[in-house]
Specification:
15 strands; 2 domains; 32% helix; 7-stranded parallel β-sheet
């Protein structure tokens, strides 16, 4: 008699429906004169996706935290590609960019250190800052990347050389290699040019664009998005980190068309000058108006852990407040994942271990499209 196959549906902790295929061998018991079924070995387990590549986009402090969490929880053979904003024009990065014509190194440095496989003293040394002769102090890692950028064949080769020094097997790519600037169009009709100037614009942001407008993404970025098992956006400054990468022509379109699990990690707090008064819904509306509609996201991760009152008061003095969970999820995509992703320290930020574990579980259990 042929085997019996049973399809069984179950929900995981995120509410996703998974279908398990149970196969039973039917055997005749001559002693009892009846047929019995036996579940074949391994058939009761739901098969999860084998992850081979993950892409994370952004910059600032959020992207390195995501990379740290992913690298701790992903299998070693899974390659991470970090797509880093290349529009920074403030602080040490801005000075080095202006003086030497290099890509702003700060965000790239922090992503490399998040993925580094070297002694902690080496990572710490690359974060040591030296006097900038009246200007901002320069981190050793910034100076190293600047020097490599000046002698290597191109910017990507310079980053690859730095990665090899740090024993990194993953990939760090700037969103673009052209020397770009961000331009924010404000609701009052004014335009503000420059990443560091945008939060001081004095009016809400209506739209963000990149100059020059025909900037091409770095070779390898679109291919990485097309073949990834998961694409992660955020957390980080909505306009000057996340959208700064998405407004590079072709990037938002590639994310929207990706067949992978596409995850947006919502920030914990608003940012003065960028997202004043924003809730989760306003963050998603900003993504939509820049080419990434709701249906192009599969998951939105929202923190549920209460933020300590003392920390809230400290941030409120600087004009920041907790982001409201005011998004009413539609019947289809995206699925809102409400979870405790808050770090236990005095700084209000995501916990790399908590977020990394959730991201990997979402990707591994994401259904095929």
């Amino acid at each position: 008699m042929a085997d019996i196959v049973v399809l069984q549906e179950e929900r995981d902790r995120f509410g996703r429906i998974h279908q398990s295929r149970l196969q039973y061998a039917v055997e005749f018991d001559p002693a009892q004169g009846v047929h019995r079924s036996r579940l074949l070995p391994g058939q009761c387990l739901r098969r999860e996706r084998r992850l081979t590549s993950v892409v994370a986009l952004g910059g600032g402090r959020g992207l390195p935290m995501v990379l740290t969490g992913l690298r701790r929880h992903l299998p070693s053979e899974c390659r991470i590609t970090a797509v880093v904003t290349a529009a920074d024009d403030g602080g040490s990065s801005g000075v080095l960019r202006e003086q030497y014509g290099v890509l702003p190194p700060g965000d790239i440095r922090n992503c490399l250190l998040a993925l580094a496989r070297v002694a902690p003293e080496v990572s710490a040394a690359l974060q040591v800052r030296f006097d900038g002769n009246g200007g901002p102090a320069h981190a050793v890692g910034n100076l190293l990347l600047t020097a490599l950028d000046m002698v290597a064949a191109d910017e990507v080769a310079a980053i690859r050389l730095a990665a090899s020094l740090l024993n990194i097997e993953d990939v760090v790519l700037p969103a673009a290699t052209a020397r770009v600037h961000l331009v924010a169009e404000l609701v009052d009709g004014r335009c503000v040019r420059g990443e560091s100037a945008i939060p001081r614009g004095g009016a809400p942001i209506a739209r963000l664009r990149i100059d020059p407008p025909d900037t091409a993404p770095t070779p390898g970025v679109l291919d990485a998005l097309r073949t990834a098992d998961m694409v992660v956006l955020g957390p980080g400054s909505l306009y000057t980190s996340i959208l700064a990468s998405l407004v590079v022509p072709g990037v938002a379109e590639a994310v929207a068309k990706a067949r992978s699990a596409r995850v947006y990690v919502c920030n914990l707090m608003t940012e003065p000058g960028e997202t004043d008064g924003y809730g989760v819904a306003a963050h998603l509306e900003a993504l939509t108006s820049h080419g990434l509609p709701l249906e192009a996201l599969d998951y939105v991760i929202v923190n549920t852990s209460p933020i300590p009152p003392k920390a809230q008061a400290r941030y409120a003095a600087q004009g920041a407040e907790p982001i409201r969970a005011d998004f009413a999820p539609p019947a289809g995509r995206p699925l809102v994942v409400s979870a405790d992703v808050l770090d236990a320290g005095p700084v209000i930020r995501h916990a790399a271990d908590k977020l990394g574990a959730i991201l990997c579980e979402l990707a591994a259990g994401h259904p095929d499209r």
